[in-house]
Amino acid sequence: MTMTSSPNSLKQDAIQKFSDRKAVIGILGLGYVGLPLMLRFSSVGFKVLGFDIDPEKVETLNAGRSYIEHIKSDTLATARTQGFEATTDMKRASEVDALIICVPTPLNAHREPDLSFVINTVDAIVPFLKPGQIMSLESTTYPGTTDEELLPRIESRPGLEVGKNFFLVFSPEREDPGNPNFETRTIPKICGGHTPGCLEVGLALYGQAIDKVVPVSSTRAAEMTKLLENIHRSVNIGLVNEMKIVADRMGIDIHEVIRAAATKPFGFVPYYPGPGLGGHCIPIDPFYLTWKAREYGLNTRFIELAGEINHSMPHWVISKLSDALNERRKSIRGSRVLVLGIAYKKNVDDMRESPAVELMELLREKGAEVAYSDPHVPVFPKMREHRFDLRSVELTPESLASFDVVLLATDHARFDYDMIRRRSTLIVDTRGVYLEPAENVVKA
Questions:
Q1: pLDDT in tens, 49-65
Q2: Where are the domains of the chain?
């Protein structure tokens, strides 16, 4: 394919290549988003080349082994036999027809967007881009990122013009790790293109692997759609967390109230309080919009208030734990605390932004001796901001009895909650697991 090919022929060639499943798919970032997407494209007959900067991940994948609990090694081994390969060599971006970016978009220390993973990835592959390719950004970000950050970088490559001989879309990830009711194929996919031609190629790309692709008018509309989805959850969780505090002060069980309200067949959707927000999306994404809104002279007070409430939850939980110990003539300092469940949500091994880790930090700062038990996380992982040299404690009647308090942070199904209640001196329940009142259970 040459630089002189007409824009329409390049677009039609790309669409045909995806339709015939002869295209090579490149996925940059092989984590909780990129790996399931790779498996899906591989399963429908595409050759997939995966890129990651972590040599250990690449070596593990090329050996047909998984490092994510809910992704089984046999599915990776099958993908390998179907042509999947992982690499750290960004020069190989020239070998693929689609470049799908699935890298983290965290916040920095000032709670501002950190696009360094996205920008560094794009900068690394720009020298190897070629006419006829499509680039899709799936990482959640603020409206305008695709146009303002990716577009000029692509067009800095001599001879490339987005919408004419190169195609650019934003198609946000919608993964829900550990949810057995949905998989990559069955979750509808939003796609917005920089131009109508870009959108056509994007729909051809994702239409081969996803049951339903939902087109929107622009990359900015697609970026805003993803933020709305997660801000909707953040605001509603913030509301129910605030209701939890009010109900607690009034001596009312908020979980009983939520269960009762949920019997209404219309106009009410149940959200559940917890020790804080976890995962890579809900604690982070709202601040991407609040940051960008300031550029337009707007203050997103409603969104920021929900964020403040959710961010304060770990501190409220620790105050409840402190009060419960005080009533038993103990202080946090010197107490042995077992944190039950440290993944960010039940039945997964995903530790991203887990509120349980912040609880562990707060307890350690106050002088507690902290341990944890989590069947999904046998060894505390290496994390950028948190360091604990700990292994998961096996739950036995003897081990439970050795702790002054058990802090139930993540309600994994594999825990024996009846045994935990019977053998624990004190339980602080942040998830509403224990519905019936008990002398040794404190709701938080």
A1: 999 999 999 999 999 99
A2: 7-217, 233-443
Q: Is 198 a catalytic residue?
A: no
Strand bridging mode 441-443 / 85-87: unpaired
Q: How confident is the model at residue 4 (pLDDT cuts 50, 70, 90)?
A: low
- Cross-strand partners of 391: 379
For residues 383 and 393, give the distance between their C-alpha atoms in angstroms, rounded to a whole number. 20
> In angstroms, rounded to a whole number, what is the distance separating the alpha carbons of residues 22 and 405?
58
Q: What is the pLDDT of residue 6?
A: 74
Q: Which CATH class is domain 7-217?
A: alpha beta
Alpha helices, H only, 20-88? 34-43, 55-62, 73-81
The radius of gyration computed from the CA coordinates of the chain, to the nearest angstrom, equals 24
Main-chain phi, psi angles of 146, to 5 degrees: -60, -45
CA distance to 12, 161, 207, 365, per residue, from 155 (Å): 21, 6, 26, 50
Exposed, middle or buried by CB within 10 Å (0-12, 13-18, 19+), for 113? buried
- CATH 2.40.240.10 corresponds to the domain 233-443: no
Q: Where are the alpha helices (DSSP H) in 186-284?
A: 196-207, 219-249, 254-261
Distances in Å between the alpha carbon of 312 and those of 232, 317, 322, 362?
Answer: 19, 9, 16, 12
How many Å apart are CA 156 and CA 138, to the nearest integer?
A: 22
Residue 338 scores a pLDDT above 80: yes
Contact 281, 230 (CB under 8 A): yes
Tokens of 215: 């087109």
At residue 340's C-alpha, the angle toward residues 400 and 305, to 5°, is 145
Strand partners, 340: 373, 408
Catalytic residue among 102, 191, 198, 281: 281
Q: Write down the mean pLDDT value for the chain.
A: 94
**Is the CB of residue 346 less than 8 Å from the CB of residue 374?**
no
Helices (H) and strands (E) in the chain, counts: 15, 13
Q: Are 7-217 and 233-443 equal in CATH topology? A: yes
